[in-house]
Design a protein that fits this description.
This protein has two helices and five strands; from the N terminus they run βαββαββ. By secondary structure, it is of the alpha+beta class. The protein has two domains: 72 residues, Alpha-Beta Plaits (2-Layer Sandwich), CATH 3.30.70; 33 residues, no CATH class. A three-stranded antiparallel sheet has the order 1-3-2, covered by helices on one side. Strands 4-5 form a two-stranded antiparallel sheet. Strand 4 and strand 5 form a beta hairpin. The protein is elongated and about 60 Å long. The structure holds zinc ion (ZN). This is DUF2007 domain-containing protein.
């Protein structure tokens, strides 16, 4: 057994578990109830953990997890845009103008 991942949010751990299982890797989640109280801080710092049952699957599992984290970190936020109303420069992460509240003209 090897622990390959842990995260405060159980839904992320569960998502990765199904990713690994779909690749034929047998897994187990520990501390499943650690963050059960949604919207509240966990009482302890025990996070849900994802383990692979077969140590031989560890490298493959970590590779899948690495790709998953990269994809999450590089999620597109859209390019910066210029407000059509007040001509303010607005960063791509915002969907409306921070200055006047106009909606972004950038589609998608
Ligand atoms: Zn504006």
């Amino acid at each position: 057994m090897k622990r390959v991942f842990d995260h405060i949010d159980f839904t992320v751990v569960g998502h990765l578990q199904s990713l690994l299982e779909s690749e034929g890797i047998r897994t187990e989640i520990r501390n499943e109830g650690a963050s059960r109280a949604a919207g509240e801080l966990p009482i302890s710092e025990v996070y849900p953990e994802l383990w692979v049952l077969d140590n031989a699957d560890e490298a493959k599992a970590k590779e899948i997890i690495r790709e998953f984290r990269q994809a999450a970190e590089t999620a597109p936020t859209g390019p910066d845009w210029t407000c059509p109303v007040c001509k303010e420069h607005v960063e791509g992460v915002f969907s409306e103008c921070w200055n006047c509240g106009a909606a972004s003209p950038v589609v998608g």
